[in-house]
Amino acid sequence: MRIKKKLTYHHGHLRRLIMDISINTIEQQGVEGINFRALSVMTGVSPGAPYHHFEDRPALVLALAQEGFELLEAAMVKTSQTIKNNPIEKLEALANTYLHFAVSHPGYFKVMFRADAVSNAHEVLTHPTKLMFECLCNAIEESQKQGTAPQGETLPLALLFWSTIHGLATLLTNDSLKKFFIPEDKLTASIIHLMTKIFDTKAKASLAQKNRSKKSAES
Amino acid sequence: MRIKKKLTYHHGHLRRLIMDISINTIEQQGVEGINFRALSVMTGVSPGAPYHHFEDRPALVLALAQEGFELLEAAMVKTSQTIKNNPIEKLEALANTYLHFAVSHPGYFKVMFRADAVSNAHEVLTHPTKLMFECLCNAIEESQKQGTAPQGETLPLALLFWSTIHGLATLLTNDSLKKFFIPEDKLTASIIHLMTKIFDTKAKASLAQKNRSKKSAES
DNA sequence: TGTACATCAGTGAACGCGCGTTCACTGATGTAC
DNA sequence: TGTACATCAGTGAACGCGCGTTCACTGATGTAC
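The joint structure predicted for all components is written out below.
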């Protein structure tokens, strides 16, 4: 294996390059910004070349979404396995992982969560998403067993948790917060911490406690 | 004012019709589905006619987003004013209003929260959004004063609340839940209720309480 | 109440380019023997 | 180690249409007097 000569006839990593540039494009212009012709120009290749790696445009979009879901899933699984015996801490770490993924890979995040004809119900997308969601469910269930999350069905709680981190990720990546008021970086971590604390029934009890004593101090 | 004759030379409500059809199109195909030529066909009008009502395609998209934000803001303000003296109930009602808007107007919801060059930082969008967010902030602040929400800064709490309802709305409107597992209609209301309860420090204390007594019963 | 005129909101033909996609081709690479 | 051959991954010219946009025009509507 020698150092790859430049300007070989065979590009060598065209598929990878196309996907990377696409993600970059999506970050700036959204998924509609993806353009096979422009892509061929940017990769220094003829217009037909990309078709040796992606059947058509929708196939590229699907491949990007799939890769995104797999990256996110891998990150969540890894976080999940790293932290043992402390479900609340694990929940907070999972939330941070999710947020960090969205913020540092907004292109992937955008292409993953768009309901178009292509992506809907494709097994290659649903599978990693289910695994990712399982991480949340498991962490919450552990937390419930330990008595640090509200009792009852796990599913609604997990969905609530997912909604929260997904919503924050969405508002961050679509610039809703930047546009309107918020110094993002500072707040994100504290919001996640707040969320975890609110989820934690024990901590919550103490919040109410603090609250009550404060009130009685006032009166 | 007589009944409007059909087939007048002047259409009479072309602008309204174009916007309605656009929203419909977005529901099914996303914002990229909007197409001036198709729109002129669907409204039974020549290709040039829409340009008397919208400067260009981006202007139409902006108008749709603006209308969406105004509708949402109006709904939130109305809900906010309807419920007095019960901040927790108001919070839950606001959440339901937000969710209901997203689910019953997915076209508006989609066009509102997309970060493209057009919509970014446009005053016509930021203004109603700020007012909407203020509804949340006020309700949470009231709740804090009453001692039914965690103390501390209001902003992070409000942002957390917004994230949650926005995340759930997003996951619902982009079919993430439908695709993967969830019977939406049943869960939505119960999740919102759960969220509100979790937010409510008093109710939370009782959750932890129930929890503790259950644990001691087990041991 | 009728007439003149400005303005509004259509028509429909035309322009033009962006962009996805195809195709016959050819140079590079890998593998069998 | 060299040769033959299959396969892979490029080239570059061409096709064609979808779609935004323009423009000179004209019919309808409203208002001043």
